[in-house]
Specification:
The chain has six helices and no strands. It is mainly α and about 140 residues long. About 10% of the residues are buried. One of its GO terms (biological process) is pollen development.
């Protein structure tokens, strides 16, 4: 099993190196064309080698670590842990706003909010919207 994992990593590495050997990369952050070309090369490397981008890794991590969490509070705390481990800042203070909204909803419900509670989650989504936070599709999470 360990040998298979090693071979998979080795193959991905060799594929990535193969793409990078063929492509010319210009490192010039001030040149939009060079930045676009670098982005395209790295996208090709990830696609051919079967590697995830940073945002894809974050999405995968969130999905895998939160799939069995029943309550909204633990979900938000887990998101905070993931953010901290990834070194992502919360410059806008979104976590505090979301926790405040959650506390208001739980106070109204007089019980912890479960993610399966459609009415409670809809109420939380409304509270998030008032403080400027919800997913692109309008759902809280």
């Amino acid at each position: 099993m360990l040998k298979n994992i090693f071979l998979e990593v080795k193959n991905k590495f060799e594929t990535a190196i193969g793409v990078l050997r063929k492509e010319k990369i210009t490192i010039a952050p001030e040149d939009p064309a060079a930045v676009t070309q670098y982005t395209n090369v790295m996208k090709t490397v990830r696609e051919k080698a079967g590697l995830l981008s940073e945002s894809e890794w974050i999405k995968y991590t969130i999905q895998s670590q939160t799939q069995n969490i029943p309550d909204a509070r633990t979900y938000l705390l887990t998101l905070k842990e993931i953010r901290i481990k990834r070194g992502l800042p919360d410059d806008l203070g979104a976590e505090a706003m979301m926790m405040d909204a959650l506390e208001k909803v739980e106070k109204e419900l007089k019980k912890p909010l479960l993610r399966s509670d459609k009415k409670g989650m809809a109420l939380l989504t409304v509270k998030f919207s008032k403080c400027g936070g919800s997913n692109r599709d309008g759902t809280a999470f």
